[in-house]
Write a structure and sequence with these properties.
three-stranded antiparallel β-sheet; 11 strands; six-stranded antiparallel β-sheet; 29% strand; 5 helices; alpha+beta
Length: 190
């Protein structure tokens, strides 16, 4: 049974709210990243504001999802992923799967001389594979260097940091489960 235009529009708000919550973002966080004021975002999520292209485009960019996913467009049957790189904290994240379940990303980390490692934690487990370059992985009290062809898996509740080791960009393939979508938290030192 095909959904009416009104039913499709009514489903956008709850979908947006769920995406924001899954990513652990507040309306204030989202307003800062999109340039859309909190009141408009709240009304959009609550269904009292109609979704427009001007509102949905920046949201799709922040959430790194296709616009079709925001409006619940039916799948076309094409299994190819059309990744859109997201630059965050000096690194380029390229999603290789749709949100939900096991997530796959290609991660490019350029050399960042003078940047002090800032260890983070989050729930879940992370698996990574070095495609090219050398990766410096700080994991708790350990400092490891992984080269192309090497992999690592670790509990992400252990404080960790990833960076390029040397003067070349390191390329990684990273897999993590749904709990890995949560934002990194600052590590508290006593």
């Amino acid at each position: 049974m095909a959904l009416s235009k009104q039913n499709v529009l009514d489903a956008v708000g709850p979908r947006l709210r769920e995406l924001r919550r899954r990513r652990g973002m507040t309306l204030a966080d989202l307003a800062e990243r999109t340039g859309i004021n909190e009141s408009t975002l709240s009304r959009l999520e609550g269904g009292s504001r109609k979704p427009t292209l001007e509102l949905l485009l920046p949201l799709a960019e922040v959430y790194a999802v296709p616009l079709d996913d925001l409006v619940g467009a039916p799948r076309t049957g094409d299994p190819r992923i059309h990744p859109r790189p997201v630059n965050r904290h000096g690194m380029t994240h390229i999603p290789l799967s749709h949100p939900g379940g096991v997530m796959a990303h290609k991660l490019l980390i350029p050399p960042r001389p003078g940047v002090e490692p800032d260890l983070k934690t989050h729930e879940g487990f992370e698996w990574l594979y070095v495609i090219a370059g050398r990766l410096r992985l700080l994991l708790g009290d350990q400092s490891l260097v992984l080269k192309a062809g090497e992999a690592a898996e670790f509990d992400t509740q252990v404080p960790h940091w990833l960076g390029a080791d040397g003067d070349q960009t390191v390329e990684l393939l990273i897999l993590f489960g749904k709990q890995g979508e949560r934002a990194h938290l600052l590590v508290r030192t006593a």
